Amino acid sequence: MRNAPRSAGAAIRTDYRAWFSRAEEYVRRRRGVLIEAAPGSVEEFLDSALPFAADGYPVELVVLAVRAADSRLATALRYARALQIGGTGRFTTRSGHDTCFRALADTVAVAERHPQIAAITVMRRDGQALVRHEADGSGRASWALAAERLRPYTEEEAMAFLQLHHALRRALPRHRGELDDIAALARPLMPPHMQPARIDRPHPPVWPLPVRWQTSGYDSLSSLSRAA
After folding, report:
1. Do the beta carbons of residue 149 and residue 130 sit within 8 Å?
2. At what angle do helices 94-113 and 140-149 cross, to 10 degrees?
3. Long-range contact set of residues 27-32: C-beta below 8 Å, sequence gap at least 24
4. 205: which residues sit within 8 A by CB, 6+ positions away?
5. What does the pLDDT read at residue 52?
6. Between the CA of residue 1 and those of 43, 91, 113, 124, what are the distances in Å?
7. What pLDDT is attached to residue 221?
8. In the chain, what is the straight-line distance between the N-terminal and C-terminal CA atoms, in Å?
9. Which intervals hold domain Zeta toxin (predicted)?
10. Cα-flanking dihedrals φ and ψ of residue 37, to 5°?
């Protein structure tokens, strides 16, 4: 992580999953368990969850619904905090983040219909539960996740986002370009007065009229006429 913090997550994922699977097996044989994870695919989630179902556990999925920009900014914040205390941390690349971000939506869609997933709860980051789905295949969990990811910012939320963005630009000067990309991702969901001013397309004072052609030659409208 010290030498390549941007690609550390991808580099350690295979080893991490191997050790994690062994830990899951150990716990599964003894007591209840709560697992926090960011699966990179539906298959990765099922490989983790279904052995618990096979051993008699009721498997429930709790999903954190967060806008893409908020999720990426939080990754930058964790990285900055690690550096601030003299440690090392992972600053996941956009592609790495987006892989897991898409995989979560795919996982919820599969879990809603899976007979061995007992329930799905979709929550906001502040802990507010948006919906609880219990194996009826209605798609409510997928809908709630998608809706929250696209929910417009309140003015208070937008101000907090921008303040954190400015602070991280100071703390992580090497990554200002990416931080600005993250802010650009958030802007369309912010209140109108907090979005960049739009430059309208200039309107010419006159517009060209179509050319009228005649078989016998050009007449008085053979060149472009203009109307006020």
Report:
1. no
2. 150
3. 28/52, 28/55, 28/57, 29/55, 32/57
4. 228
5. 87
6. 26, 9, 38, 29
7. 36
8. 66
9. 3-131
10. -155, 160
Check pLDDT > 60 for residue 225. Answer: no
Percent of the chain clearing pLDDT 90 (strictly above): 58
Residue 55 CA from chain centroid, whole number: 33
d(CA 58, CA 76): 35
Q: What 3-state DSSP class applies to 73? A: helix
To the nearest 10 degrees (0 to 180), the angle between helices 68-84 and 94-113 is 130
Helices (H), the chain: 8-28, 42-54, 68-84, 94-113, 140-149, 155-171, 176-186
Helix (H, G, I), strand (E, B) or coil at 188: helix
Which tokens hold the place of 184?
A: 């650009």
d(CA 41, CA 21): 16
Residue 93, classed as helix, strand or coil, is coil
In the numeric block, which tokens belong to residue 111? 């879990």
Structure tokens that stand for 170 in this block: 């100071």
